[in-house]
Amino acid sequence: MTAPLPLSTELSRWLREAAWMRWPELKDRDVPWDVVPATRPEFGDYQCNAAMSAAKLLRRAPRDLAAELLAAAGSHPAVGHVDIAGPGFINLTLNTAWVELALDSLSADPRLGTPRPGEGQTIVMDYSSPNVAKPMHIGHIRSTVIGNALDRIHRFLGYRVIADNHLGDWGTQFGLLLLGFREFSNLTAYEAEPIEELERVYVLSYQRSQEDPAWLEAARAELVKLQQGDPAARALWRSFVDHSLREFDKIYQRLGVQFDLVRGESWYNDRLPGVIQRLLDLGLARESEGALIVDLSDEGLPPCIVRKRDGGYNYATTDIATVLARCEEFAPSSIIYVTDERQQLHFRQIFAIARRLGVQCELRHVWFGLMRLPEGTFSTRQGNVIKLERLLDEAEKRALEIVRANSPDLPEEQQRAIARAVGIGAVKYADLSQNPQSLVVFTWEKALAMDGNSAPYLQYACARIASVLDKYAERFPDRDWARAPIRLQEPIERELGVRLLQFAEAVLQAAAACRPNLLTDYLYNLSQVYSRFYQTVPFLRAPDGVRESRVRLSAGVAQALRTGLSLLGIETPSRI
RNA sequence: GCUCCCGUAGCUCAGCUGGACAGAGCAUCGGAUUUCUAAUCCGAUGGUCGCAGGUUCGAAUCCUGCCGGGAGCGCCA
Questions:
Q1: Is A286 left (phi over 0), alpha (psi -120 to 50) or beta?
Q2: Is A375 a residue whose pLDDT tops 90?
Q3: By percentage, how much of chain A surpasses pLDDT 70?
Q4: By CB count within 10 A, which of A74, A337, A355, A460 is most buried?
Q5: Is the CB of A535 under 7 A from strand B?
Q6: Hey, what CATH topology would domain A122-269+315-372 get?
Q7: Model confidence over A114-141: pLDDT tens digits?
């Protein structure tokens, strides 16, 4: 049998349809018919708060409405009993036998009942997008990790996702870089540590440009040569990009991040004149102070410059070209950009212009708070950047110390593998478990937290369950938990079972809100309940049948944790 | 000057499309292991949800103002 999941969706539909049948006049009114998990255990498993809102519209007593609604809805197989409490809350307690059956089918499903609402739809996801010739630092981790989690979540929900790493590989800094490279570079250093060398060269070239107008002029000339396709400039630039990409790939490999496309800004270069032409043809752009702008004042936005006074194009032009190209090539239902908060205005402008150009697909900017250091913002010039590589190294190092202390019997190689999964997982989780829009002040302590609400806590729960399954197989070789029915006897068991049913809801919510922390919240809570279950209820020593039920429930929890963590890009070793 | 975001326990943060006495983790204090991984669990302490109004049966959540912090606002990306 297939359980009607997600349960809250199903129950909401049940009550909403009954309400609309009973009170057709409320159909277009804004009444929250949603059934949501109960806020407190004594209120049952789910609750509906619609009666109070409806009461206002119908000028009736809310408790009466609640009673009429329940009478109209009749019974639902999942609902054991209902209560009307307080001013008119409808409290639903699930039928435990139904929950048991739902878990029987759910725990056999690797997706834990998660639907695929995205089938047939494409999403382009634009994330990470570091700048060529600069090292990835801790400021890049948010876009990369949050973007990758949203990428994985959407794929899981059936969307065709095109993950595109929109590299910053074009722009005025390349004039200084090309010129500086010819003058200052050390080729040996460039081969060994390309990004560091390019960074050094850039800083020198930048400094000289501040003091020497002729140098600045020469840099501009280099940029023009590059943009006009001069073979020598082009070749050198290509080398910068390739070397940078190789360095970025080391980080991506460690983070388990893969892209379908790596198209930098340069990829759109040839399309820029066409974009300008379209804007002009449609009468959307006009000249102002020598530059070409799109006036957006009727949307309350400042004008957007799409061509500079000197005839050059800027990032706005590129981003418009990018939207158009993506729509043409992939026909996505939406394009999601994951960047920091500073680009909010920029994307509002880009989206407004794209719509005027006839772009239909949903355009979504998922922004997150800029990462800062306790002493303020960091920048290359202040020399206070913390490189991503160093953060990952430190995470693995600290994790390895803990692994060695806790599992001294394991071979060195396995300890290292566990430390990688735990360390990288901790770093990712620290970022993913926060509301993306919170302002983030980087501290080592926070970024590397490995106890409490952290990835290792969840990984630990998984490892414990793996161990339980091993022990079971060892001690009861002729029994099979996978076929035994799940029975929920103890309150903690029931709580765990109901919680497990809510996996799909958590994934769907995280996707809809583009907030991975909704998923981490769910997973953390599930493991907390599991830890309590593990602590208070014996399973391998439980009687026949009960033992199998508990082992099977544990296996279901492990499945949820593994799947959930994989959606966040976090590994789950069978031992930690 | 205008726009956006943030201000919740000593610290770090959830909760914010309004719902029933405000939740975690860390820290502090006290407990739990002859048994399935103690990277765990149980208990205690700890909050005028920045301030002041307003809307509502009901506000941390919505609206207005103020205070404090961050970011952005035409030729950088």
A1: beta
A2: no
A3: 98
A4: A337
A5: yes
A6: Rossmann fold (3.40.50)
A7: 999 999 999 999 999 999 999 999 989 9
